[in-house]
């Protein structure tokens, strides 16, 4: 029995060594990208970071030396915000696997003159895809910043400024990672500041090709629309659907790829997501109908449904021929 006990102990020791977090606080050239990503602790969604993080000292256990960091994240990213000689210290804040094709990593970057929080997107095989600056330390006590990654993988940045008494001005920007463009794309911005106030939805697939039969824009109004773009082959379409009902109290948004299941109907379904939506096309409209639970993509009392009229494509002015 003793030999089995010792064998068990050895196996446990090997397993613990295998999963032991590698230190990234030294300029260790042997660190690989898997070590780098594994260094970040897993976080649950929704995940929120506030600017109160700047009031705390960075933990040595989460420290990543810049020379290690730039092996896996292009140095052109931080060079937008820091001078190369500054050599900022990087502190890992956490990571989350989207369950699809991306991982989201959050870091705090610190020098003597500047502090900021950033998000990075990595592929499932740990290749860098995109980066997004979230907010920077501000000495103004009337200003606050909050960044949130929700369960729909929407990254929301909220900037608030106290103006007088209890009055607060805000600006909120929402982003999603666009895997086609490989960047974070702004999809919604809103504000109660009259000087900057906007309330519009930005279409993340707007610039993609629309040459196929059903491709185009379908809408009820500016806040309730479906965009269809060319899929990777003739049997697929790309879509982005956004709706706001009950004076904005009920919202939904969904982006993905749907497969044609008949000559005029395409169906969206994705592994691991119970959401299923059918798009039925006619020459002048598309009917959207939710056939599976899409609660992760909308508010609880509304659904992906309705008739959306096809919009006329806006033709660019063509230059007149010279005679």
Key structural traits:
mainly beta, 6-stranded antiparallel sheet, 8-stranded antiparallel β-barrel, 323 residues, globular, Lipocalin, 19 strands, 4 helices
Fraction of helical residues: under 10%
Total of DSSP H or I helical runs spanning 4+ residues = 4
Order of helices and strands: HHEEHHEEEEEEEEEEEEEEEEE
CATH topology (level 3) name of the domain at 208-312 = Lipocalin
On the 0-100 scale, what is the average pLDDT? 84
Please outline the major beta sheet.
Answer: 8 strands, antiparallel, barrel
What is the CATH domain class of the domain at 208-312? Mainly Beta
- Structural class by secondary-structure content: mainly beta
| Rg over alpha carbons | 24 Å
Can you tell me about this structure?
The chain has 323 residues and is mostly beta strands. It has a domain of 105 residues: Beta Barrel (Lipocalin), CATH 2.40.128. The protein is built from 4 helices and 19 strands. The strands form 3 sheets. Strands 12-13-14-15-16-17-18-19 form an 8-stranded antiparallel barrel. Strands 1-7-8-9-10-11 form a 6-stranded antiparallel β-sheet, with no helix packed on it. The longest helix has 17 residues. It starts with a helix and ends in a 13-residue tail after the last strand. The C terminus is likely disordered.
């Amino acid at each position: 029995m003793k030999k089995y006990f010792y064998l068990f102990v050895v196996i446990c020791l090997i397993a613990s060594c295998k999963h032991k977090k590698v230190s990234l606080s030294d300029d260790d050239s042997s660190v690989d990208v898997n070590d780098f990503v594994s260094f970040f602790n897993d976080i649950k969604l929704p995940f929120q970071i506030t600017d109160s993080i700047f009031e705390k000292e960075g933990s040595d256990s989460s420290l990543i030396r810049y020379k290690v960091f730039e092996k896996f994240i292009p140095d052109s990213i931080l060079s937008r915000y820091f001078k190369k000689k500054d050599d900022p210290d990087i502190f890992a804040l956490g990571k989350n696997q989207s369950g699809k094709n991306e991982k989201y990593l959050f870091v705090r970057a610190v020098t003597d003159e500047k502090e900021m929080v950033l998000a990075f997107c990595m592929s499932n095989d740990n290749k860098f895809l995109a980066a997004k600056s979230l907010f920077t330390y501000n000495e103004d006590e009337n200003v606050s910043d909050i960044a949130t990654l929700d369960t729909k993988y929407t990254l929301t940045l909220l900037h608030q400024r106290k103006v007088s008494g209890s009055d607060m001005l805000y600006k909120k920007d929402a982003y999603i990672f666009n895997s086609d463009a490989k960047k974070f794309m702004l999809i919604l911005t809103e504000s109660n500041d009259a000087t900057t106030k906007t309330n519009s939805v930005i279409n993340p697939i707007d610039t993609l090709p629309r040459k196929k039969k059903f491709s185009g824009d379908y809408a009820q109004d500016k806040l309730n629309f479906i965009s269809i773009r060319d899929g990777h082959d003739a049997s697929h379409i790309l879509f982005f659907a956004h709706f706001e009902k009950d004076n904005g109290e009920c919202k939904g948004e969904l982006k993905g790829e749907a497969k044609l299941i008949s000559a005029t109907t395409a169906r969206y379904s994705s592994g691991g997501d119970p959401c299923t939506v059918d798009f039925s096309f006619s020459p002048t409209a598309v009917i959207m109908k939710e056939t599976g639970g899409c609660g992760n993509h909308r508010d609880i009392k509304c659904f992906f449904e309705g008739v959306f009229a096809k919009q006329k494509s806006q033709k660019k002015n063509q230059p007149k021929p010279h005679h």
